[in-house]
Amino acid sequence: MTGAKRKKKTMIWSKIHNPQCEDIIQWCRRRLPILDWAPNYNLKENLLPDTVSGIMLAVQQVTQGLAFAVLSSVHPVFGLYGSLFPAIIYAIFGMGRHVATGTFALTSLISANAVERIVPQNIQNLTTQSNTSVLGLSDFEMQRIRVAAAVSFLGGVIQVAMFVLQLGSATFVVTEPVISAMTTGAATHVVTSQVKYLLGIKMPYISGPLGFFYIYAYVFENIKSVRLEALLLSLLSIVVLVLVKELNEQFKRKIKVVLPVDLVLIIAASFACYCTNMENTYGLEVVGHIPQGIPSPRAPPMSILSAVITEAFGVALVGYVASLALAQGSAKKFKYSIDDNQEFLAHGLSNIVSSFFFCIPSAAAMGRTAGLYSTGAKTQVACLVSCIFVLIVIYAIGPLLYWLPVCVLASIIVVGLKGMLIQFRDLKKYWNVDKIDWGIWISTYVFTICFAANVGLLFGVVCTIAIVIGRFPRAMTLSIKNMKEMEFKVKTEMESETLQQVKIISINNPLVFLNAKKFYTDLMNIIQKENACDQPLDDISKCEQNTLLNSLSNGNCNEEALQPCPNEKYSLILDCSGFTFFDYSGVSMLVEVYMDCKGRNVDVLLAHCTASLIKAMKYYGNLDSEKPIFFESVSAAISHIHANKNLSKLNDHSEV
């Protein structure tokens, strides 16, 4: 036995030192997903929708880039660079086909903390206001972007280190309620940071614990200094943006191309500000000079990395978690898979490479991803097409945005966060599915509001793990075997001797975020496992019973999935008597199993369900109301299957 192990170890070691050409190609395809999808790109079917989606995405990238650069306390032109380089890098290394990487509100807000702390506004007058630096910008602006670039660089290094350590497999501990609460709380922080621009108030930068409340206290103390012109323009912009976007959503099926209201508003506001000279007449703050072109690359200042490590960790964790949630949602919606570890590499390299081109930290944004959905994007080519139009703006159109009011950019930021802010509606869902998840959402949101997004994320993860650890001991005594499967094959009297296969699976474990993914994988493998088609069949009293013991710990199943026999009909009975407790992730996975089986023409019936489980599943998913799926016992479910079989048999005879 020792010799066999030594021989196997020697073979692995020799394979590492003498890699074959196929191994290198396979590694490149795994780490460079563009090599996988680009050679198979269908120009005829995909180029037109990708081009249209890319143009619409470019509009969002430009407007959000300008806005999020202001949010990050740097010059707006650096937001344009942040909309270009990260998108290119992610298209090469990323696996999300509908993930648009670029500037992001949450990472911009985090990097602003470092910028304002290291290069505060009050030293602007002490710096040299020369135009001899990069792109003709002042030394003050260049000092600020170097700090933001350092945050981006170090955040990317942390993400790449997490890729090397294979920590992507541990992301299952970040549950949907935690992500929802953290992003909602961070979006609330972003809206609060824009209040001074919406009202036209000059106020110092306020951050730190309870900074959210200090900002509103300052606003109410200085309410008399609100600039009426900025307030009216902000309200008008918000009303126009919300109204037109709602109309686009209502009529998106009838119109092929939605109205780019963000771009129209920017052009209209800039033209109106230029004609009325609002900057000098009313004292309205405008974007100012936007230089043309892209500067030559320059390394971020390594001397300040130790000073921005807190913000870098926040950018790495918050940006990755928010982006991964969008990538997983995209993969689930369009039926493809992503590698959590590869996403660490893709976003890490996006931040590292972009930091050399004066870019602020990047991540995927919900609004841009939703835009790719609605415009029918097929592949990452849409993001590459958007980069072409962003380049046109950088080299040709940028200087025309001098007169754009900053309060309009703030309005675009606030309306763009609508998708995150309306996650408050999830509270009703969590309350009906699992009240503990509801409590986790509330507490995570409160911690995010009182402290910061990274603190709220950490608290939510720790709280979730602690609660599950506290709930598991009382449930583990109920089960000796984690999963068992019994198969029954019945020869029916119908024509062509159709096989009726009933699978009864008893799960005697809690179903929570820790084991939901493995539960789904094991169940799909059971359904797809090939059954012996030529095996002699007998009555149900002489059925073949096959027991499968499988751990429900999180991970991937190594069992090879085979296609079932084409002439078999399946019914799947899940015995839920062992579901001592469940959370939101478990219920969502159970509903996903039901929907996937329904797509495979597999009838799913659930037995011994508690009233809370039935209520949670009915509330969460669009279950088939015509067919009963919940039964008091396994025997009642089997009786229902036989009744349906006899009914279909009678219907066939009546048709004859």
Layout of strands and helices, then pairs:
Elements: H1 2-17, H2 21-31, H3 34-37, H4 43-71, H5 77-82, H6 85-93, E1 101-103, H7 105-118, H8 139-164, H9 176-193, H10 195-199, H11 211-221, H12 228-250, H13 261-276, H14 278-281, H15 309-334, H16 340-355, E2 362-364, H17 366-374, H18 381-397, H19 406-416, H20 418-421, H21 426-433, H22 435-450, H23 453-471, H24 473-476, E3 483-491, E4 499-507, H25 516-528, E5 568-575, H26 584-599, E6 602-607, H27 611-620, E7 630-631, H28 634-655
Parallel strand pairs: 4-5, 5-6, 6-7
Antiparallel strand pairs: 1-2, 3-4
Helix pairs in contact: 4-17, 4-18, 4-19, 6-16, 6-18, 7-8, 7-15, 8-15, 8-16, 9-22, 9-23, 12-19, 15-16, 15-23, 21-22, 22-23, 25-26, 26-27
Transmembrane segments: 147-165, 203-220, 226-245, 257-277, 304-327, 348-367, 379-397, 402-422, 442-469
Pfam family, one: STAS
Domain STAS: 492-641
